[in-house]
Amino acid sequence: MKCYQCNNEVPAGYPQCPFCGAPQQQMGGQGINVNVYQAAPNYPPKSRMTYILLALFLGGLGIHNFYAGYSGKGIAQLLISCLTCGFGAIAVFIWVIIEMCTVDKDANGVPMT
Ligand SMILES: [Zn+2]
Fold first, then answer.
1. DSSP SS3 for 36
2. Which residues pair with 23 in a beta bridge?
3. Which residues, other chains included, contact 27 with Cβ-Cβ below 8 Å and sequence gap of 6+?
4. What are the residues whose beta carbon lies below 5 Å from ligand 1 (ion)?
């Protein structure tokens, strides 16, 4: 393997060029794909239809967010609706409609099907 910077021969397994210190890309070695790796979820994908139906009928209470695992957002929507005696639910419902259109993954990044 040749250093891309100084073109000297770099022994395999060296993370850096011993001549100029440039970091070397290890073909097929560990380290490159670590950040791409995503652990498989240990539950089946959530249903986007269920998410949308919950949002439509119970969205003001944030139930769809609890379903998808976004419990922080769910609690916020629940509190806004309850603490304003329902007046805030109008604002929450606009928020919910935006979520219905834009959210297609659960809180762990697993796409809803
Ligand atoms: Zn070099």
1. coil
2. 16
3. 1
4. 3, 5-6, 17, 19-20, 22
